[in-house]
Amino acid sequence: SQKIEQNSEALNIQEGKTATLTCNYTNYSPAYLQWYRQDPGRGPVFLLLIRENEKEKRKERLKVTFDTTLKQSLFHITASQPADSATYLCAPEDNAGNMLTFGGGTRLMVKP
Amino acid sequence: NAGVTQTPKFQVLKTGQSMTLQCAQDMNHNSMYWYRQDPGMGLRLIYYSASEGTTDKGEVPNGYNVSRLNKREFSLRLESAAPSQTSVYFCASSARLGAETQYFGPGTRLLVL
Lengths: 112, 113
Fold this sequence. Notes:
The structure holds 2 protein chains of 2 kinds. Chain A has strands at residues 3-6, 11-14, 19-26, 32-38, 45-51, 56-59, 62-67, 72-77, 86-92, 106-111. Helices cover 0% and strands 53% of the residues of chain A.
């Protein structure tokens, strides 16, 4: 069955550094993948969508890559700020091609 | 433009009690979803509605029922609550199924004693 893996341990980085979060998926090949941000006590908020024919997608300080050979997506935040502290969820398309399947999320802590 | 709204924000139930979680969206979206989120488990899909008049089971539908009342509203009902249903419930909507952005509500925190 399909499996989505994100590092469950929190990622702690210093302000100004680049944060890199990893999303690995197994047993299938999604045609697209989304990333969401979730703050404590709130619902997830959409950040970026990347399709299988796109190697990289950028939006301001955010960059997402999608390596269909490695079955992995990387999410980068450059020049990180304390306001970037949140949990980031990876959500590939499911193997039926209709829905999103969410990973458990990685908590990012940016220290000033 | 409120987006996706959910009521109530918090609820405490005793085992065996029933309740309905309400969700409404004002974005004229066709598709709506109910998820539950538990620590370390991520978001799991309970039920979804691809369009008005249709509903389908997701990954964890047991113990729940849904109603797509109209295009705007999608409710989730717990007929006989169990402690295993203690969770945070999120409603979401999207323009349609597939590679579409989902917009989430603020969530309902449910505790079943």
